[in-house]
Amino acid sequence: MSKKILIGVAIVLAIVIVIVFAINLSKGKNVEGTLQEIMAKVYEGINESELPMMMRNTELTKENIEYFIGTSDIDFKEALASESAVTTIAHSVILIRLNDAKQAEEVIAKIKENVDSKNLSYAEISNVVVKSKGDLVILIMSNEELTPRLEANFDGLE
Question: Are 28 and 134 within 8 A, CB to CB?
Fold first, then answer.
């Protein structure tokens, strides 16, 4: 091979390595702000008329988190649930800030294994999303119109 081709290949490989590194770095980056501020960003762009009535935020503790996610067997700094005060409306968004981002995959697996989407109302919800960004885990259980919008807002957090 000629010297020009080798240099071109080396440049392309360097660019690919930088891009892969940048993607992996952004995956592990923690989302800054309080859980209240982050929750507001998750709901950003969604009109109040599109949301269930009487929405409220509830601080989650070791004592009450099992009711919301099906397990208390996780180590976390803080957690916040956003739900309707009307118990027959099936809608819940839960943010959990972990002590260590390295726990995220394990916590996601525990939530998926234990969460009871029927706990929200009389009907089971099929729109359940559990994912993480840095040290933040989100559990979304809502209708088919809101779930993808809430998930997209979470994915866009920086």
Answer: yes
Residue 140 in contact with residue 150, Cβ under 8 Å?
A: yes
Given a contact cutoff of 8 angstroms between Cβ atoms, the answer to whether 52 and 23 are in contact is no
pTM of the model: 0.79
pLDDT of residue 21: 55
Q: Is 29 exposed, middle or buried (0-12, 13-18, 19+ CB in 10 A)?
A: middle
What 3-state DSSP class applies to 58?
A: strand
Check residue 26 and give its pLDDT.
44
pLDDT along the chain (158 residues), means of 10: 71 65 57 95 93 92 94 96 82 95 95 79 71 96 92 94
The residue assigned the tokens 């394990």 is 106
Contact between 139 and 111 under an 8 Å Cβ cutoff? The reply is yes
Q: How many other CB atoms are found less than 10 A from the CB of residue 48?
A: 8
8 A C-beta contact, residue 46 and residue 146: yes
- Residue 137: in which H helix or E strand, if any? strand 136-141
| Nearest alpha-carbon partner for 52 in 93, 89, 94 | 89
Phi-psi region of 33 (alpha: psi -120 to 50; beta: other; left: phi over 0): left
Q: Inter-axis angle of helices 35-42 and 146-155, to 10 degrees?
A: 130
